[in-house]
Amino acid sequence: MKVSVQSADFDAGAEMRALSRDPRVGAVASFIGVVREVGMTLEHYPGMTEKALARIVEEARGRWQVMECTVIHRFGHLQPGDQIVLAAVASAHRGDAFAACEFIMDYLKTQAPFWKKEAAGWVEAKAADDEAAERWK
Amino acid sequence: MKVRILYFAALREQLGTPGEEIEVPAGVATVAALRSHLRGRGGAWRLAFADGKLIRMAVNQDMAQSSAAIKAGDEVAFFPPVTGG
Hints:
By secondary structure, chain A is of the alpha+beta class. Chain A has one domain: Aldehyde Oxidoreductase, domain 3 (Alpha-Beta Complex). In chain A, 36% of the residues lie in helices and 32% in strands. The relative contact order of chain A is 0.24. In chain B, a hairpin with a 2-residue loop joins strand 3 (56-59) and strand 4.
């Protein structure tokens, strides 16, 4: 299980290939979040961020068959088109990989201490994100 | 008792500080009580911590409810609802 909070970009292809080395892996599902339309600065809470992400991954492992998992989230200044986040899950079958990946993203959106600021100001949290996380309860 | 307080994002800007170490008055034993203590400073503090304002809290880097207990040496953080991902 790999959790990384970093300012540097990541190679999503390389990260996903690394998840399928185990011959028992039959599915790798992934999500990549990308900066849309306007640049932003991402602030986070060093220490808590890594802890919160690791906890979300652990929770996913308790619910689905997760053989390997990588979560990378960037911080700092990002431009339109830049990658923000990668969540990738390896499992024997696609059902577990899809579900765990979606769960990780829904929980990350409401539990991991990141905040986006655009030129127009701080991005407001969305009720839809809370609802998305609620449905896994 | 002494606690370390951290502020993030819009709250940090509003208050003009990323954090502080404070001596908590006797009787302030929960995150909610600490929040009202800070609100009592007035000015920007009264606005930032106004009732009904959505603020998330963490104690020792774990998300916490406002009823969570605080003890000497704790790291308590206040911040707006998160917007990562």
